[in-house]
Predict the 3D structure of the following.
Amino acid sequence: MHPELVDELAIEAKTKIIFYILDGVGGLPMEQGGATELEAASTPNLDALAKKSICGMLDPVSPGITPGSGPGHFALFGYDPVKNIIGRGILEAAGIDFPLKGADVAARGNFATIDKNGVVTDRRAGRPSDEKNRELVEKIRAVLTPQEGVQFFLETVKEHRVVLVLRGEGLSEAIPDTDPQALGVPPLEPRPLKEEAQKTSRLVKSVIEKAKGVLAQEPKANFLLLRGFAQHRRFKSFRQRYKLKSLAIAAYPMYRGLARLVGMDINPPVETLDEEISALEEKYADYDFFFLHYKKTDSTGEDGNFAAKVEAISAADAALPRILALKPDVLVITADHSTPSFLKLHSWHPVPVLLYSKMCRADGVEAFSERACISGGLGRMSTINLMPLALANAARLAKYGA
Amino acid sequence: MHPELVDELAIEAKTKIIFYILDGVGGLPMEQGGATELEAASTPNLDALAKKSICGMLDPVSPGITPGSGPGHFALFGYDPVKNIIGRGILEAAGIDFPLKGADVAARGNFATIDKNGVVTDRRAGRPSDEKNRELVEKIRAVLTPQEGVQFFLETVKEHRVVLVLRGEGLSEAIPDTDPQALGVPPLEPRPLKEEAQKTSRLVKSVIEKAKGVLAQEPKANFLLLRGFAQHRRFKSFRQRYKLKSLAIAAYPMYRGLARLVGMDINPPVETLDEEISALEEKYADYDFFFLHYKKTDSTGEDGNFAAKVEAISAADAALPRILALKPDVLVITADHSTPSFLKLHSWHPVPVLLYSKMCRADGVEAFSERACISGGLGRMSTINLMPLALANAARLAKYGA
């Protein structure tokens, strides 16, 4: 895969591409010889489409690597997931739909307990309620006035977790975690890891001091630990790279955040798959590319609930006719990674993929499942190849060389 | 693929390798569920050979990328088609079989019409006949005497198209197109894009002036536009890289030109596949490697003539016994890219490949077609891996490491 080459060759066209992402859809049997979630589910629409499509297996990063949502989606979007690293703080901010800008620096935070000797006794401050979290955040916000031209944003995530964002000139991500990730030791100092991080170091130190002051009387949440400092950067956008006007439709904020990082327009939050597809229908005329994200196949897998994942897959299948009715020039159905119920975790297993277009060269695969797609015409390849293939099938890539 | 490794490991042997290239042979069905050209053709010999061979699918550049003939063939020859870019001018010169040398600089030219205000009114000068083209070229040649130690070659391509080649010391390709690719604007100046292009700039300017003088009285073809300046370079040859004495047999000049770029000997032009194979038989004792190029599978595809492409494939199949009678140690049959009649264009679809040798490890594929080869033992891989595989099967690659 040659990302620069693809960017050079991308051309405008009137065609439309839909990526229907069934998060974590790849699975495993619960016992040896059994069926995977995809094989157990009723998927007449997916299977019928597979027969007309080219299928295969995708490795999100490379064989054996279990991707997080960030690398998994970046690979789907055609961005090398190893070269284009999304820092933890940035991912956390994206995950609460925080509109990052310019060179913002973001960090994950957690309320913690320190004792009178200044050592950490509980890294999660007894897991406060979300409401308590919001109350503490409000109090700290009140004292976080701009300093040295830099604005501060402190945002609730949930329980003990928050996000801190710094916005202004001359910031740097070269700040170590202050969370010692251990008990009985004091928090670490946000010292500058590089010369250019002096200012950020001063500002973070000041935030921690101010928070400490505000939280002094709290019995548990009396300290703010920070980690995963990361600077926002503008990745080349879908428009710049692929000449695509693109829309992300996702019920969960994390996926909207990831799409925002590559310059997609973001559909306002909706909750159900039905609502997502209604949004797709409404906006269909206005965009070239649609990232349609379905979460339930992943969350049921992470719960280890095989039956619920099977049901989620059947629901994704039942929604397919509405998508097909739009007659997209290219429809891709796949996942960002596998989430086998058997493991209750993301996994390294490759994910089945189906690409439909009038010129896809169907391959004889008869069903959309892990086992069936092994024999597909795409073979087994890295997910990063998917965007170029989708563009080619949409007549959106010029010939390379004469 | 590790090109340098292959070069290091290549050893001499008495074995012979034939690459039988069916240009553009990969195809598509004309309607959903139909047969591709290869599936529709009668190919008893190819199918019988596929049963004894290892098969697979090759991506000439990478998934989704549609290659021109240059990158497609360079990949077949084992040269990275992205790192080894062949400039437009060089390809055009190769395409008319012009014997490029050393650091020649070549450009594509076209006769154009400019009006009395000096703006371009027809970039193709009303498409003159080939005969008219030759007549104009003769006239300009008469005034293109050597200058600053540099020789000039002006060659007819066809209609309005010519090739200009500069040969001498101190030349550079850092000259912009003078063709503005638009009407109503004057031609652009061949100014030097780099310091070292000063001399080339002066010389090209002088060529344009001289041509203008000669063409002054022409009603239509009164100007010469130039574009795609590119410098010839000696790629490492087949002999240097692979220790192979190689011969190119191709009816079309472009393919002879591409083979010449990698140092193959060139069989004199012949017209039909039969004549090509006769040449192969005659020269068989004298070479280790044969690049046998069959054009008709591509030209019929580009015409969108499914039936003619099917017939061209059957003809290629019928010729196979004569090739097999030579008992080559390794016979590879594949293409530089797909040219589906359905698209009338080169396409990004991978091409089927068959590699026969006594030690190829046959894989159970029963036919030579896009669908059948998906299940082949080579899987889906980049074309650049083909040369090392052919060398290995010819016992021409030493072991790597102890």
Chain A has two domains: 3-84+235-393, 92-231. The mean pLDDT of chain A is 96. The CA atoms of residues 156 and 208 of chain A lie 16 Å apart.
